[in-house]
């Protein structure tokens, strides 16, 4: 008689003999091969996906950097230097920080030299030309009414008309038909029913109706 041995102390062959079960061939090796192949395929797919994603991100980043640099260069070129004196026509600033014309021609330079002499020797046209070198508009020109109000009024009428067309279209194709309670016949019957029920007979609706004469008091 053989001594009893714990099952976990036996090797697989002895386990089969101890239990008396039928030994079956193991299927571990093919399963391991298929699992390894699936893992390899998954790794390749992930590598391809990450590569494509990386290339797409690189392209998008390059496009965005190019567009941002283009926009930055455009903004820099269009931005005015506020640290320098600027010219502006305003009613509250009679003397701007700089003259209207900085770059002068030879004729204008000679006129500016002539300006330093007595103004009695200047003609009316020369005085006007000198004024236009320093100022763009006169006070009369700045106070002159413009036709901008016509554009504003026209825009208001346009949007009001467009809104009316939208409301008209909704009344025809969107809103449901008007309830029958708005019909005059229905309102007359409702009024008669309220009088028959003597609604608010003290100081309200029915108190203003003369039931003996059948008319309003």
UniProtKB/TrEMBL annotation:
Record gene name: COX4I2
Pfam families referenced in this protein's UniProt entry, alphabetically = COX4
The family line of this record is: Belongs to the cytochrome c oxidase IV family.
Q: Return the GO cellular component terms, semicolon-separated.
A: mitochondrial inner membrane; respiratory chain complex IV
Q: Where in the cell is it found?
A: Mitochondrion inner membrane
**Which UniProt keywords are given for this protein, alphabetically ordered?**
Membrane, Mitochondrion, Mitochondrion inner membrane, Transmembrane, Transmembrane helix
SUPFAM superfamilies (UniProt xref): Mitochondrial cytochrome c oxidase subunit IV
The entry describes its oligomerization and partners as: Component of the cytochrome c oxidase (complex IV, CIV), a multisubunit enzyme composed of 14 subunits. The complex is composed of a catalytic core of 3 subunits MT-CO1, MT-CO2 and MT-CO3, encoded in the mitochondrial DNA, and 11 supernumerary subunits COX4I, COX5A, COX5B, COX6A, COX6B, COX6C, COX7A, COX7B, COX7C, COX8 and NDUFA4, which are encoded in the nuclear genome.
Give the record's GO biological process terms: mitochondrial electron transport, cytochrome c to oxygen
What protein name applies here? Cytochrome c oxidase subunit 4
Purpose of the protein: Component of the cytochrome c oxidase, the last enzyme in the mitochondrial electron transport chain which drives oxidative phosphorylation.
Membrane-crossing segments per the record: 151-169
Query: What is its pathway?
Result: Energy metabolism; oxidative phosphorylation
This protein's membrane topology, according to the annotation, is: Single-pass membrane protein
